[in-house]
Specification:
With 494 residues, this protein is of the alpha+beta class. The protein contains 17 helices and 24 strands. The N and C termini lie far apart (51 Å).
Length: 494
């Protein structure tokens, strides 16, 4: 199938990010966005991961181009609070850990057996970003850190979509049709044509605007209008991800020097706190298995402890993804492709990663069986791996004071068991190479230690008889380095 004309159904972040990627990569193709004037947007603010940086750079978008217009702030970590049920915290910092050599990993974990080391320390001694986030400070560059490479953003997602639309896409030739889809014709190739017209409540459609296209991009959110029209199958992630609802609101306060997203546990889920330049988005993610909507709202309000009037909105969802996100002549992007709860800010992650992959698959100018298979394989694994990573947070959580949290460690996906894989991988004959820096942050921040007293006895007999003492010395060195980092951060904060 030769692709010269691409039509995106749906605006919002997914639609306009799609248009931006496609018009940048293929300026000679006809790119159209059909955006309904009355289609609601989620609009709860957006917290991203550092992987959005390569996508921005691929489009030539610099921080100074858009951040002010979208009330954006930098984000360098996610702070998890009270996942032990005792008020403790730990960071999932951005960037890579700064080990002097491979043995640092093992020496530090041996030192944790000998001393009462707080769980949050692991990230804060190996990641400059965690140290900066904990102290509400930010530097451009330092050892193991580069703001333009390692940071992400908090921003107003609605304003971001509008900025992409007006400042990037339309000036480059993207066409817009401000109409609403009311009928879809299909054939054995997928979507044959789409009928749309101006939406007006209580007024019948006046004229038929029938659209055709070589390739259709479904950005219609949870409705997944095009994918459903062609009979796409949905892969339900099942019991591994139990949270299916969220109460959301906006707080008027802004915290311009908070460079992290907060994730704080409550009795039946957790609360996010996303600071933008002019307000703070917050929401309570919970499971209807354990609490009803009204009870969850009361719990959320009690947590917020505010007297002012706030507007609350209930969101619900189903965890999973399209079995094939590219099927026939349709590709699903954003929420139409799938959804994983917002614990690790993955909403836009799957969007820009899908777009990066789609651009690569379209570079030959065709979208045939091979290109579709490559896209589905890559994005299927991306969704599944990310879902697995999210489940891992619950598997290692040590809070157990409510039925919800007593069951948390039992959560598993059908085919992926991140916690088991991680634990096995870090207990191989050689433990000195960490399995994955991001998995480390979650597991070690919740108390896992990949060495044990058995390992100590083994080392005493056959390996290094001074492993514990060496661990203590190493910890002294790493804490001294941390002091130097903090001094530099305070002196060079922006």
């Amino acid at each position: 199938m030769k692709v010269d004309k691409i039509t995106i159904i749906g605006g919002g972040s997914a639609g306009w990010m799609s248009a931006a990627s496609l018009i940048n990569a293929f300026p000679d193709k006809e790119i159209i966005v059909v955006e309904s004037p009355d289609f609601p947007t989620i609009g709860v603010g957006e917290s991203t991961l550092q992987y959005i940086r390569p996508w921005m750079y691929s489009l030539g978008i610099k921080d100074e181009d858009w951040m002010d217009a979208c009330n954006a702030t930098h984000k360098i970590s996610i702070r998890f609070e009270n996942w032990d049920g005792k008020g403790g915290h730990f960071h999932y910092p951005f960037g890579m850990p700064q080990y002097a050599d491979d043995t640092d990993f093992d020496y530090y974990n041996f030192s944790r057996l000998a001393e009462d080391v707080p769980d949050n320390e692991w990230a804060e001694v190996f990641f400059p970003a965690a140290l900066m986030a904990e102290n509400n400070l930010l530097v451009e560059r330092m050892e193991g850190w580069d703001l333009k490479q390692n940071s992400a953003y908090h921003f107003d997602a609605v304003k971001f979509a509008q900025w992409l639309k007006n400042e990037y896409c339309l000036p480059r030739g993207v066409k817009i049709i401000s109409q609403t889809v009311y009928a879809i014709d299909t054939n054995n190739q997928g979507i044959e044509r789409i009928h749309c017209d101006v939406a007006s409540p209580g007024v019948p459609f006046r004229a038929d605007n029938a659209l055709t296209s070589d390739l259709w991009i479904d950005c219609t959110g949870f409705k997944a209008l095009l994918m459903n029209a062609i009979g796409s199958k949905f892969r339900d992630y099942g019991g591994g991800l139990v949270n299916d609802s969220a109460w959301v609101t906006q707080l008027p306060e802004s915290y311009p020097n908070q460079y992290h997203t907060n994730c704080t546990t409550l009795n039946n889920g957790w609360v996010w706190n996303t600071p933008t330049a002019n307000r703070t988005g917050t929401g309570y993610v919970f499971s209807s298995r354990y609490v009803d909507n009204d009870q969850a709202l009361e719990e959320f309000k009690e947590h917020l402890n505010r007297d002012d009037e706030l507007q609350f909105r209930l969101l619900t969802w189903k965890h999973g993804r399209q079995e094939r996100m590219a099927k026939q002549n349709v590709v699903a992007i954003g929420l139409a492709a799938g959804f994983i709860e917002p614990l690790e800010s993955g909403g836009l992650l799957t969007t820009h990663e899908s777009l990066n992959t789609l651009v690569k698959c379209l570079q030959r100018g065709v979208f045939n069986g091979g290109e579709k298979a490559a896209f589905n394989y890559a994005m299927g694994n991306r969704f599944d791996d990310f879902a697995d990573f999210v489940v891992m947070h619950y598997q290692y959580a040590t809070r157990d004071d409510t039925p919800y949290w007593k069951d948390a460690h039992l959560h598993k996906l059908k085919n992926n068991n991140a916690a088991d894989e991680f634990y096995t991988s870090t207990h191989k004959e050689s433990r000195v190479i960490p399995f994955n820096a991001h998995y480390n942050a979650i597991a070690f921040g919740q108390g896992l230690n990949t060495v044990s007293n058995y390992d100590v006895k083994f080392e005493e007999l056959f390996g290094n008889p001074g492993m514990l003492e060496d661990g203590k010395k190493f910890r002294e060195w790493i804490l001294k380095r941390q002091e130097g980092w903090l001094k530099y951060i305070k002196e060079n904060a922006i």
